[in-house]
Structure formats: C-alpha cells, structure tokens
Amino acid sequence: MALQPVAKLPFEGLIADARSHKLGKWHSKLSERALEQYAEIGWPGPKTESWKYTSLNKIASGTFSLAGEYSAIVPEDMIMPLTCPRVVLVNGVLNKELSNLEHLIGNLSITSLVDIEDHQKTFFDDLFKSEESKGDLPLTHLNTAILSDAVMLEITEGSKCELPLHIISIGSGNGITFAPRLIVNVGIGAKVDFIESHVGCSDSAYFSNSVTQLYLGDNSEVGHYKLQNDSRESSHISLTRAVIDDGASYDNFTMSVGAKLSRNEVRAHLKGSGVECCINGAYLGAADQHIDNTTFIEHQAEGSSSREVFKGVLDDTARGVFQGKILVHPEAQKTDGYQMNRAMLLSDKAEIDSKPELEIYADDVRCSHGATVGELEDELIFYLCARGIDRESARRMLIGAYISDAIDEVKNIDIRSSIQIVAENWLKQNLYEK
Amino acid sequence: MSISEETVDQVKKLEADKYKYGFVTDIEMETAPKGLNEDIIRFISEKKEEPQWMLEWRLKAYKHWLTMEEPNWAKVGYKKIDYQDLYYYAAPKSMDRPKSLDEVDPELLKTYEKLGIPLKEQELLSGVVAVDAVFDSVSVATTYKAKLTEMGVIFCSISEAVREYPELVKKYLGSVVPHSDNYFSALNCAVFTDGSFVYVPKGLRCPMELSTYFRINAENTGQFERTMIIADEGSYVSYLEGCTAPQRDENQLHAAVVELVALTNAEIKYSTVQNWYPGDETGAGGIYNFVTKRGACRGDNSKISWTQVETGSAVTWKYPSCILQGDNSIGEFYSVAITNNAQQADTGTKMIHLGKNTKSTIISKGISAGRADNTYRGLVKIMPKAEGARNFTQCDSLLIGNTCGAHTVPYIETRNPTARVEHEATTSKISEDQMFYCQQRGLSPEEAVSLIVNGFCKEVMKELPMEFAVEAQKLIGISLEGSVG
Description:
The complex is a heterodimer of chains A (434) and B (485). Helices cover 23% and strands 39% of the residues of chain A. Chain A contains 8 helices and 21 strands. In chain A, helix 6 packs across helix 7 (391-407). In chain B, 24% of the residues lie in helices and 34% in strands. Chain B has helices spanning 5-17, 38-47, 52-66, 106-115, 145-151, 158-164, 166-172, 183-191, 432-440, 445-456, 458-461, 466-479, and strands spanning 29-31, 90-92, 129-135, 138-142, 154-157, 196-200, 209-215, 226-231, 236-244, 251-254, 257-262, 267-274, 286-297, 303-310, 315-318, 321-324, 330-339, 344-347, 350-353, 359-369, 373-382, 390-400, 405-414, 420-429. In chain B, helix 6 (158-164) crosses helix 7 and helix 10 packs across helix 12. The two termini of chain B are 16 Å apart. Strand 21 of chain A pairs antiparallel with strand 24 of chain B.
C-alpha cells in the first residue's frame, strides 16, 4: 500500500509571519517550540476522539491571514452590559485607548506581553513552558505560536477586588485569524471576579483561537464569566485552563450565543484539597450555528467538590455538543462530583450530541452525571394556557425559565442579571421576532 | 487467634470454588494447522460441507478483514494477538456428526455433566430447557430437537442450518452484522466454525427456553461461534447462553457474532451468563472476549431484550445493540459486569432509534474490585425520523477498594425534537455502615459483599430466566471473593 501523503498543517505558513512581529526574538523561540509541538500532534481530524462531534475542516481549508494593524470601537450592544473597569483587546492585542483602567485598585496589575521588561521574560517563559507537552491541545500550541500579545492579570496575596474586571476581546476584519491570550494569576486568599466578552465588529468573519490560563492560589476566590458573542460568520475556539490550589473556589460560567462555529473548552485541574469548582454554562443556537461545550475536571486531591450544569436551546439547524469528563485520581478520596446537561430542541432539524464521561479510580467518591434531551412539553404549555396565558407567551415564558435555570448558577448577582439580559435579547431577536 | 479449622476449610473451599469450570477434558481433537489464510478458510468450509456461496462469503470477509485494523479505542490493554499463532479449527475427533447422544464421546458428556447441562434427553425430568452444546468450535448435540421440530421451531447448529435451510440462512446471515462491520466480526465471518441457529415460525410462542453452552477446551484455539435467531411475525423466544473455559496460562481468543432478527410483533429475549476463565490473580491467562452482538427490530411492535451477567474473561469488549427500525419497537439492555483482580471490561450497548415511538431502556451495573477496570460505553442515537422516541439509561458503578477503576462513557446523539432521552449515572462504594449492618447480623465480610452486590444488581438479575438467576447470583459471590478483608 502506498504511503499516505503527509497532511498539510493548517496555519503553518502564518507562524513564520508571526515571528517577525513586534514581540521580537524572544517570542520567536517560544513560537518555534510551540510549532514543534503543534506539528507533532497535528490538526484535530474526524478520528480525534475529543473532536468527534465538532469538525474543524472548514477552518483548516479556509484562507486566513494574520490580523494586522487595527482600530475598532467597542460594540456596546454585544458585550456584557456592565459598568466596571475594562481591558480591551482588538484582534488579540491590548488596546490602551479603549481600555478604561482608572478605577483599578493598586493590588491588581495588568501587563501586556508587548511591554514586558527583560527580567519579566523568564517568568513568562516558565509560564508558557508549563503549558507545553500537553499532548492533546494542538490549538493551544498554535495560539502560542502565532500570538501577537498576551495580557496578564495579577492579584496580589490577600487582596479583595470589589469591582469586577471586564475583558473585552474584539475581532475586526475579514479572513483574519488571531490568538487572544489571557493569563490570570490569583494570589493566596485573594478574591476577584472577571468577565470575558468575546465580540466581533458586525459582518467580520475571522477565526479567534483564544486561550485563558488561570492559577488560583490557596483559599482564593475567583468568579470567571464569559460571554461568547462573536460575529455570526466567525469561528471561536477557546480553551480555559485553571489550576486550583487548596481551599480555593472557582466559579465559571459561559454564555455562548455567537459565532457560526464555536467551542468553549474548560479544563479545571483541582490540585488542592477542599476545592470548590463550578463549571456551568448556557448556550443558545439558531440558524446554522454549531456550539460545542467541552469540559474536563480533574480531581487530583482529597475532598474537593465539582459541579457542572449546562443548558441549551437549539432552533433551526443549529447543533449543540456537550462533552464533559470527570477524572478522579486514586488519591482523590471523598470527591463529590455532579454534572448535568440538558438540551431543548425546538426544530426537527436541530441536533444535540452529548457525551458525559466519568473516569474514576478512587472508591470513596460520590459522582453522578445526567443528561436529558426533549422538546417543550405540551403539558407545561397547557398548564399556563389554562391560566389564561396565550400560547406564545407561555412558550416564551417556559424557554426563558429553562435557560434562567442554568444562569442562576452564577454566584455574582450583578453579573447574573447581565447574563440574563443577554439571553433575553438573544431569544427576542432569534426566536420571538424572527 | 490461631487459625481455626473452620478457616482452613473455608480457604480450601475457596480455592476449589475459585474457578470450578477450570478443568480440561482430555479427548482427541482434530485441528487444522495453526495460522490463518485462504486455505484454512477453504478447509473449514470443506469440513463443514458448505455450499459454494458460503465459502465465497467467508473469503469476501477475510479479504476485507485484511484491510482492517484492530480497534484500539476501548479502555482495555492486552498483549497483541498473533492471529497466525492460533488454531482456527478444533473439533472433537470421534464425532463426525453424531446421530444420537449414544455416539457422542462419553468424555464429552462427562464434561457437560460437570457443567450441569441437562444434555441427556430425559423427558420425564422436569427440565424445560432445550440445549445446543458447542464444544470448542463444533456443535455437539442439540436436545429436545424432535419436540421443537414438531412445532416448527428450528433449533440446530448453524452448520446444519447452512446445509438444511440455506434459503433462511442466506436471507439473514450478515444482514444485521455485515461482514465488514468491525475487525472481530469480519474475522468471525471468515472462520466461524459453529454456533446455534434458531427460527421461530409465525405466531408461535416457543414453549421452552432455548439454551447454548459454549466451551473452549483445546489449547491455542480461538472460538468463533456464530449465533442467529430469527423470530418470525408474532412469535416469542427466550434464549440463554452460557460460557466456560479451562484454566490456562496463555490467553485465548473468543470472537463471536450474534445476530437477532425480530419481525412484526415478535419478541426475542437473549440472556447471557458469561463465565469464561478470567485469568489468575496476577493477570496471567484468561479469555479475550471480543464479541459483536446485535439485534434488529425489523417489524413494528417488535422487541429485543438483552440481559447479560459478565463475570469472566480477562478482557471483555462487547456491546449488545438494538437497531429499532420498526415503529413502536422496543430495545432493552440489562447488564451486570463484574471485574476483579486484573480483569478489564469495556462493555455497554447501542440503541439506534429509527422508527416512530421506539423505546429503549438501558440498565447497567458495573462492579470493579482488585486492580480491575470496568467501563460502560454506550450509544443512544435518535435519528431524524424517530418521532416520539424515548430512552432511559441508568449506569451505576460500584468500586471495591482504591486500586480499581470505574468509567462511564455514554454517547447521546439526538436529531429529533420530540425525542426524550434521559441518562443517569452514579458511582459509589459499599459503605462501612452497610458492611457493619450485615456483619453484625453474623454474615462474614465475603457474604456481606455478595449480599450487597446482589442487591445492587437486583434490577438486572430479575430479568434473568429462573434457570440462570440462581447460578448468576452464586457467580457474583464467587467473582468477588478475595476483594475484601
């Protein structure tokens, strides 16, 4: 049998271009290493188990160029409606003019990779190294290889941030790709809430390959909320990786409503014991949207708990994917893990694929998962109609309540109501008034 | 406390009970040369006096098999199988198609006696089970044949069916599990040597349980049996399958295919107690059990129900499935899988909903002890035309000790909004309270575990026919011996 031709590695050509970027020589080395790893793993294909339900063929076969110089305005109606300090990235690069950091308190620092001093480079080097040799994350290596900036938030030990911080990543331009990179380092006992809004300038079509890394020190408390509202013709592939130490609490929620193709992958590594970890989300899909939520929770030490609740509503030919895995190491006795994925299909062409997975090596654990799929139940509508509510209002009420159920998992009340507003607006535009 | 006599006795009993089917029967065997090639397939086909079309089908499968790769996605690890180092045909020599039981080698009959199979037709006895016994690769004897034939039920070995009922076999063979389906089933298609064939005619409710006992005896042989059950319109049949093998150091391969076809209003109930030799405590030896089982609910209102108790085998790779084609058809899967010592099991089911108002139920209980790994892997797929489809899945895992693993990998794919799919899974351990409660009432730790595990599996055990339920309960106790204390 003839040897199969070696598949072309998508974006390989762009990586060389990225090296001549303003990050200079230092990034070149980093990029070379990342390319090596990316090339070794290769582009995820249909046989890659973790990409079974989400095909990246369209991205691989598309023509993209690196995002160049850019200017943009913040699309206020697309981001999470919140009044708080902002960090704005345009095509993955920190934009100081659009950012508004006056209200920031002293113990929270923001560093852009473009500005770092030589002595800070070793720190970043180590940080990126810790991400290397992750055999199953080719797109993360691609992110490292082509990044044009990275933003690091540091919260010093013991400090409590009253106001949340809003990180807005804007995609602007057609046929471009960029790699937003966010690093969040939370000191021991510190407390912070931050939001990521991923949005695009109207009718832009781009590929955003975003990576967020978090380090949660002992007993820290972090709320991490994300709105994915990229422009409808775009692709959004993101990875969030959180390493969590003893006694820390991590509350993650992702609202996915935008992009044509999106994947929100969250990996939480519960290194310490007594960790409380929540990874929740809601997704709303219409037209030909494809929304993938993939989570991985790794219990490495004793006595931690994790909770996952995902809910979605899918209309038209939209397709939802949920893959959730809980891994419990032999040392992680007394683990408490809960996972639930529910989806509602509103059209006979919509599709949902779920794969909730448990891999357990400790005996004294309580782990459960559940998944349900169904349509809007006639009985519920009848109940409301019997009370004088017209059919359409009843339907809206039930769909709204279905999604609210997941949004209620968000711990920060202000942010919870902002997410609620986003969901309501989406339902209005895509379901009720279409 | 010194070791009391009772303890010594207990231990002795344990040793003996550990794998009571681990004996070898010494009878003359006729084997084909080791290895696999077209000539071996021709040899098998000739031995079986098969028609040309059968041989061609085998060769087609073999050619396809050569292009395939052994699957590696299951969560099991095992030594690579050298397919050229196996015997693909081993038959007890003395019996070239016995006409009656008198012609069967007495050694063989003794073996079956040890296994507790009521092989002798003693119609006065209350035994209501018709048995087809497959020894290594050849069907030895089928009991109650006359009585069944009278009613129009065909229950014979598949090689006999190929000769006697070629039209039926031709029509259904490979229609549920095609020759190209997967690596192990393709291998089976090429080299299968025997198995059972059942045809239940229209409107008949088969009055007795049909049963097959499979036994691998010879060294280095693979057992490749093929079972086929066709339930014609409005009929019902319940079929039991039991498996044992002698204790050996090396691994033996078992790659069977089971095809079920249920036509309109028909129902098939298929129960398995799988107790192949699991290997010893260190993981040496044992059977590789790579089985493809699939049923097609072809007609409306048909029903296929799989019940399995899996306690044996070193490595299990098995997913009894239902293809729900007919409207209102029902698929069920009840499973208990127990792994101890170094056993590995990757088992589950597939429920493919195609017809309207199709229903499926999956109840899976996995118990893992020692250093074993136990995985449930299942697929529920609702196709766009399956209006009103309904699925309920429950997978519970029980871990005994912290050196074993329990895993759940369900795939749920829904493409119809009217479908209702529910999936639940839990993992837990036997609590100290439960153990204390039982021991306080005078049960030994072993007995307590057996009792608790039997309770954990009750939902599945109650689906087993009476004849099997008692044996299965005992098996569960034996499989878990040595896992506590």
